[in-house]
């Protein structure tokens, strides 16, 4: 690739990630993702095992959970709770935004 | 390149046990956690702390670093001697202070490789790791599409497996209609693969640069628009600057501050596009001249208006 070439990516929400791709992107084994989807910590609860797809929000959420579990030895339930709270804080911050 | 004292970064003694390293890391990970920290440069500190932990919590890396580090102080000019890590075999998956796309030169030079690849196991194949970074864009960029340039410092091995740091500059097309928090996946722009395997991908998380003029909810955009008291009271056609360019807007008579004017489809582009809400902000002219004070005094005399009336009911 030349220095000035413009690279074009794909939006993860338009071409969602497979289970394996999501695991690779998070640096975890697919089973790590499966366990958290089955426990309801990831995904919207509607995923069928035969067709799991992951969008930007799932990716952000999974990476945050993995970081919390790894840094603090947090159990998945606690990591999910912290991520829920972080998301709520972000929502409230947006709500009290300037306009 | 400056030498980094990982013990100093974590605030532990060189004799610290694994438990003490872990405890120090957790304390700092909480202090500098980018999602909640109010510390200045929290993200930069968190990267340093992650790097320090990646080395000091790994017995092999720590032993190699200790052997090297005994001759250096923090901030001292540093180049790793040839074969500085001879006799050590790093078994981890290469550079991994989390999966940040931007390593310090120091970390990348020392640990930016896998030991197995460097020690000549030609038949070892592994796809490169995926990497993550954030990219800051303006709201206007998502209305029109844009190209943004980002530079990441990444380790790169030469044909002998020796690692250097390369500035990896990318000109990235920002697709029209991208929302905050979405990821742009750049195939093959992550860490290089080993043994001829493909490189990983680079995921760029989109963030909007803070802009006090706008509030964004999904694809809907809220923009405060100042109006004069007579425009709000009598109604007017005004020109409003919006992210997609100036538009003529009709302000209905009898409007108050906070009234929202919805401009359908003028939010962030998409299928369907979001809406743009102009939030009226009635701004009073200053009473800084005899004429202005006279007008306010006339209003006080002539208008039967009590904004606190309902509070007394």
From TrEMBL, chain A:
Xref: Gene3D superfamilies: 1.10.1660.10
Matching Pfam families: MerR_2
Domain of life: Bacteria
Protein's recorded name: Chaperone modulatory protein CbpM
Automatic annotation (TrEMBL), chain B:
GO-annotated biological processes: protein refolding
Domain of life per record: Bacteria
Molecular function terms, GO-annotated: DNA binding; unfolded protein binding
Residue ranges occupied by any J domain in the UniProt entry: 5-69
The keyword Thylakoid belongs to this UniProt entry's keyword annotation: no
Pfam families registered for this protein in UniProt: DnaJ, DnaJ_C
GO cellular component: cytoplasm
Key word DNA-binding present: yes
Alphabetized InterPro entries for the sequence: DnaJ_C, DnaJ_domain, HSP40/DnaJ_pept-bd, J_dom_sf
UniProt-annotated stretches for the region Disordered: 74-95, 239-259
Annotated keywords: Chaperone, Cytoplasm, DNA-binding
Span of the signal peptide: none
Name of the protein this chain belongs to: Curved DNA-binding protein
Organism whose genome encodes this protein: Aromatoleum tolulyticum
């Amino acid at each position: 690739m030349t220095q000035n070439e413009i690279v074009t990516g794909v939006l993860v929400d338009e071409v969602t990630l497979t289970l394996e791709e999501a695991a690779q992107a998070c640096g975890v084994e697919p089973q790590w993702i499966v366990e958290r989807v089955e426990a309801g910590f990831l995904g919207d609860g509607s995923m069928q095992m035969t067709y799991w797809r992951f969008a930007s929000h799932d990716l952000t959420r999974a990476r945050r959970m993995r970081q919390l579990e790894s840094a603090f030895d947090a159990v998945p339930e606690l990591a999910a709770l912290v991520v829920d709270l972080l998301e709520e804080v972000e929502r409230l911050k947006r709500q009290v935004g300037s306009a | 390149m400056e030498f980094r004292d990982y013990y100093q970064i974590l605030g532990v003694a060189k004799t610290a046990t694994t438990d003490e390293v872990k405890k120090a890391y957790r304390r700092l990970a909480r202090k500098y956690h980018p999602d909640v920290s109010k510390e200045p440069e929290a993200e930069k500190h968190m990267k340093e702390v992650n790097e320090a932990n990646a080395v000091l919590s790994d017995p092999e890396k720590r032993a190699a670093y200790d052997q090297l580090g005994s001759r250096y102080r923090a901030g001292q000019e540093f180049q790793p001697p040839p074969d500085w890590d001879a006799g050590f075999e790093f078994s981890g998956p290469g550079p991994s202070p989390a999966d940040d796309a931007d390593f310090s030169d120091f970390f990348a030079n020392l640990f930016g490789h896998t030991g197995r690849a460097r020690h000549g196991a030609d038949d070892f194949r592994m796809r490169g790791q995926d990497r993550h970074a954030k990219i800051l864009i303006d709201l206007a960029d998502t209305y029109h599409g844009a190209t943004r340039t980002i530079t990441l410092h990444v380790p790169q091995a030469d044909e002998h497996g020796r690692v250097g740091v390369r500035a990896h500059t990318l000109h990235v097309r920002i697709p029209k209609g991208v929302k905050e928090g979405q990821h742009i996946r750049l195939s093959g722009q992550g860490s290089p693969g080993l043994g001829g395997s493909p490189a990983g991908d680079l995921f760029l998380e989109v963030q909007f640069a803070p802009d006090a003029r706008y509030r964004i909810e999904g694809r809907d955009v809220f923009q405060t628009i100042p109006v004069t008291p007579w425009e709000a009271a009598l109604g007017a056609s005004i020109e409003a600057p919006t992210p997609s360019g100036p538009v003529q807007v009709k302000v209905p008579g009898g409007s108050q501050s906070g009234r929202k004017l919805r401009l359908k489809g003028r939010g962030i582009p998409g299928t369907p596009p979001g809406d743009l809400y102009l939030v009226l902000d009635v701004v009073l002219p200053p009473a800084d001249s005899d004429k202005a004070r006279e007008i306010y005094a006339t209003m006080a005399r002539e208008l039967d208006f009590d904004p606190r009336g309902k509070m007394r009911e």
